[in-house]
Amino acid sequence: MFDLGHTRSVYRHDHLLLTPDTFVRAPLPGMRKANAIIHVAPAVGARFTQFTAEFEEGGLMAPAADQRFLYVIEGELQMDGRSLAAGDFAYVPADGNLTVTARHAARAAVIEKHYQQLEGIPAPAFFAGSESRISAEPLEGDTSLEVRHLVPDTPAFDFAVNTMTYQPGAALPMVESHVMEHGLLMLSGGGIYRLGEQWYPVKAGDFIWMAPYCLQWFGALGKTAARYLIYKDWNRHPLGERR
Ligand code: UGY
Ligand code: MN
After folding, report:
1. How far is the CA of 29 from the centre of ligand 1 (A)?
2. Which of 80, 119, 173, 210 makes a 20 to 30 Å CA pair with 11?
3. Mutate to test the pocket of ligand 1, among 182, 206, 210, 231 (most ligand atoms within 8 A of CB)
4. pTM of the model
5. Distance of CA 164 from the midpoint of ligand 2 (Å)
6. Ligand 1 geometric centre to CA of 88 (Å)
């Protein structure tokens, strides 16, 4: 049902908030019985792309041209002879050449980024994991805000993906502004996100892109925890040189 042209989605020079009512689905090359909702891409100035891959029964997604991180949101996916259920994730290096298949309907968050190699440091290898097996770290000692690092913090990786879980009322301790950009998918709950000069109500299913230096702050509202999956570029010199 259209809502007289109204939506919470916004597109500003330093951020995007995209709500599910504005999502557009189309298959990417190499997808069969599957669609992509491309949330962010170099088309808006981002240096990565993030999309939600939606699989039908028997769906397939071909290997990526560069490194790929995949987090299963719903259902189960098969990759490299293993099954990944909701909350499981996998990292595939640029030369990984791994196809993703779905026996039944499933959805995954997919992040792809051109890999920036550091001189003398070998590129990372494939790995898979499960969010439930990652230990939670309180953010700056605040136990009501837990961070789980899904990608090892070693120099071989040029990005990080974390989940952040806020108990109702928990908030970021400061307004952040940093050189890293973010792709953020709200997984559950909701709250208020400050982006640039605006404050937005956000909830599960929403996607946010924050450009470098976008002012950002979040406070969780409601009676259940708010949780999001967040990407950032990481571990590389801002001039992009191989050092
Ligand atoms: O890792 C981060 O920069 C994170 N604290 N940012 C955010 O949640 N907007
Ligand atoms: Mn941040």
Report:
1. 32
2. 173
3. 182
4. 0.97
5. 11
6. 21
Each residue's pLDDT tens digit, 186-221: 999 999 999 999 999 999 999 999 999 999 999 999
For ligand 1, whether the C-beta of 176 sits within 6 Å is yes
Please work out whether the CB of residue 216 comes within 6 Å of at least one atom of ligand 1: yes
The per-residue DSSP string of the chain comes to ---TT--S-EEETTEEEE-GGG---BPPTTEEEEEEEEEE-GGGT-SSEEEEEEEEEEEEEPPPSSEEEEEEEESEEEETTEEEETTEEEEE-TT----EE-SS-EEEEEEEE---PPTT-PPPPPEEEEGGGSPPEEETTEEEEEEEESS--STT-SEEEEEEEE-TT-B-SS-B--SS-EEEEEEE-EEEEEETTEEEEEETT-EEEE-TT--EEEEEESSS-EEEEEEEE-SS-TT----
Tokens 């991180």: give the residue.
69
User: What does the pLDDT look like over 9-65, one tens digit per residue?
Assistant: 999 999 999 999 999 999 999 999 999 999 999 999 999 999 999 999 999 999 999
